[in-house]
Hints:
By secondary structure, this protein is an all-alpha fold. It contains 20 helices and no strands. The protein has helices at residues 2-13, 18-34, 38-55, 62-75, 79-92, 99-112, 116-129, 134-149, 153-164, 171-184, 188-201, 208-221, 225-239, 245-265, 268-275, 284-302, 304-317, 322-338, 342-355, 360-371. Helix 14 (245-265) runs parallel beside helix 16 and helix 18 (322-338) runs parallel beside helix 20 (360-371). The chain is elongated and about 100 Å long. Mean pLDDT is 88; it is low at 376-394.
Amino acid sequence: PAAAEAHLAELDRDVPSPAVSARTYARVGQAMEKSGETRRALGFFQTAYKAHQTAGMESTEGPAILLGLGRAMTHTGKAAEAEPLLREIVERHPRSPQAPEALYALAWTASDAGRPAEAQRYFTRLTSEHSRHPLATDAHYRLGEASFAGEAWKEAADHYRHAATGSGRGSEAAGYRLGWTLRRLKEHAAAAAAFQAAADRFPKGTLAVECRIRAGEDYLQVEQEKPSLTQFQAALITLGEPTTAEGRELQVQAKVGAAWASLLSGDFDGARALTDGLALPSNGWQGGRAQLARAESFYLKEGPKAALPEYRKAATLFGKHVDIAGEALFRAGECHDKLKNPVGARAAWQRTVDVYPTSEWAIRSREKLNAIPAVETTQAVEAPPAPVKVTPEAKRAAKPVAKPEAEPAKPEVKPANR
């Protein structure tokens, strides 16, 4: 900026033409803007604009001066005065290099002024007329956020997909949000691919670890246990020994997910080892899923007699989590049934119906109760458990691995040039 001002002093002595003055003052304004001296930049852009108006058709700096002046006004609290200048660019110079930035600035000005529909129109115009510009990536992300908030999942997915493959600001966040949007559409295979792609493209990004975990969860939903386990293991390697509460929470999620993937792969001991120290009420819903995985590992390796106390423990410790406790009671009933104990089975299923009447497990318990005849209240003799093989039944409890009411994080993607 100092060198530019010295050049200006020299220029003034030579009495340049208005066109030269417009171009030179605009360059100094740009230098001031880059150095963070916004108010001084505003003064130089205003002088450049006056010279540009005097020069008329001789000046080719119009769009650049208008954009610089508009930005400087916006940054100094004069957004209303900036709007006509920015609109002049997009209306009179729609093919100029400054048009994408003007559309972007107008969109944010409208958004800040509480005019979201107008902001979306500017963002949409930016994506359609300047689809290859880096700001189009950010515009797609903003449009995706608006569609997601309005639960227009398919529109949101389309915008996030464009942003996730773009080269501009917001690509990582868009890939993450695309995965969540595809979850809303129940497209779990596509969601897993989106989460994994985001983590692969931005392996050191702030969302990489969570993307790995979410990819693992969605792979489990479509019973692809091998890629699922790969994603959970990658997340655990990246996490190492976390020192923050957020990191520790993600570690619990990754370990619980890896336990379920190990179960589906037939590694019952590995699944049990992963749940050690996790099946605690302090770990909330994930703690409950850890206890269910632990119980399932006993069921699949040692049979229903060994699994029964583990399911009872899950029902007792995690009673406030309807889906956890409801499933635990239902599975306890199944264990009793396998052990030829209809009294115990009926009692477990009836308790599921009584305590969790609106849950999925109550529905399934009613079906079980309706299918078995009334029995005497005397306790049946337990029969030796039959060996359990890894069959499709072994995949019975793998869903859901993701917390049902889980919501995606909302990454902070700061607007460009603001």
